[in-house]
Specification:
Layout lengths: L2 H21 L5 H18 L3 H25 L4 H6 L8 H7 L10 E4 L6 E6 L2 E6 L10 E8 L2 E6 L5
Parallel strand pairs: 3-5
Antiparallel strand pairs: 1-2, 1-4, 2-3, 4-5
Helix pairs in contact: 1-2, 1-3, 2-3
Length: 164
């Protein structure tokens, strides 16, 4: 086999090994084989002349980048890819804000504790369960509390006047 044919064959093997690594994770063993094949392909190509070697280097790099990026596009659609990759639909942040309770609206509202507050726990305000804290006092479960402070996602409550 002449050196040019051997260089072409080795370059095809190298690109194939890089693409296979996308589908079969080997911890780096397959790409090492690809690098060795690419190195021998370049050696044989440069033995035919500098211009031939440069063409092989550019062609091999282009084929590897195109092949690996194509493999990453194809991988999520394969059964192996569906088992390996976490694919979830994400919603834009604007939609998420609409679902969340605006905690500042709770300031001054009364609710009922769903758990004992020691000093943190859960209280129910209408249809919403909210994680709350007290200012250090203990509040029994199923007691009426009122919101006295809201700072970001921290809701501070105290026992309502009739519960003290």
């Amino acid at each position: 086999m002449d050196p040019l044919s051997l260089a072409i064959l080795l370059l095809i093997v190298a690109v194939a090994l890089f693409i296979i690594e996308v589908f079969v994770p080997s911890g780096g063993l397959i790409p090492v084989g690809g690098l060795v094949a690419a190195g021998f392909a370049l050696y044989h190509a440069f033995s035919q002349g500098v211009m031939t070697g440069l063409i092989f280097a550019a062609g091999g790099l282009t084929a590897t980048v195109a092949g690996v990026s194509l493999a990453f596009r194809v991988l999520p659609r394969t059964s192996l890819g569906k088992r390996l990759l976490l694919v979830s639909e994400t919603r834009p942040a604007d939609e998420l804000r609409g679902d969340a309770l605006d905690l500042s609206r709770l300031l001054g509202c009364e609710g009922r504790t769903a758990s004992p507050l020691r000093p943190s726990g859960v209280a129910v305000f209408g249809d919403y369960r909210v994680s709350v804290v007290t200012q250090g006092e203990l509040v029994a479960a199923d007691a009426v509390v009122e919101v006295i402070e809201v700072a970001g996602n921290r809701v501070v409550v105290r026992a309502a006047r009739g519960e003290r």
